[in-house]
Amino acid sequence: MDILKWRASYETGISSMDEQHKKLIGLVNTLYNVLRNKESSGVVKEVLEEMAKYAEMHLKEEEAILKNNDYPEFTNHLAMHQGYLDKVKTLMGDSEKDEEAALKDAYVFLRHWWMEHIVTEDNKYGEFLQSKGVK
Prior knowledge:
With 135 residues, the protein is mainly α. It has helices at residues 15-36, 41-68, 74-94, 99-131.
């Protein structure tokens, strides 16, 4: 069961970013399902690690597109990405202390952060990049 459903209103109009966002939402759904099904902590950590790696790749690609197109909010966007990466690192470290609570906290953070970031911040650059001819 998917907790998050992709909607057309989430799209930035930049096809590579939209496809990566869909994958990230899919990983949030996978994390939700493994937690809901009370999978072993090893399975949960595997999903978190996959998400961390994929998100890092996505953020780097997104940053490159924004920088190469002189996005005026680039510095602010970059700071948001760094805040995300710092929080994920903290959450992964916390999972060593109180595993169950930390894994649930990680899910809540990831779900909220990605939805908020895609819908608000990424939609801003979508219009800008489209005006520069990026598809």
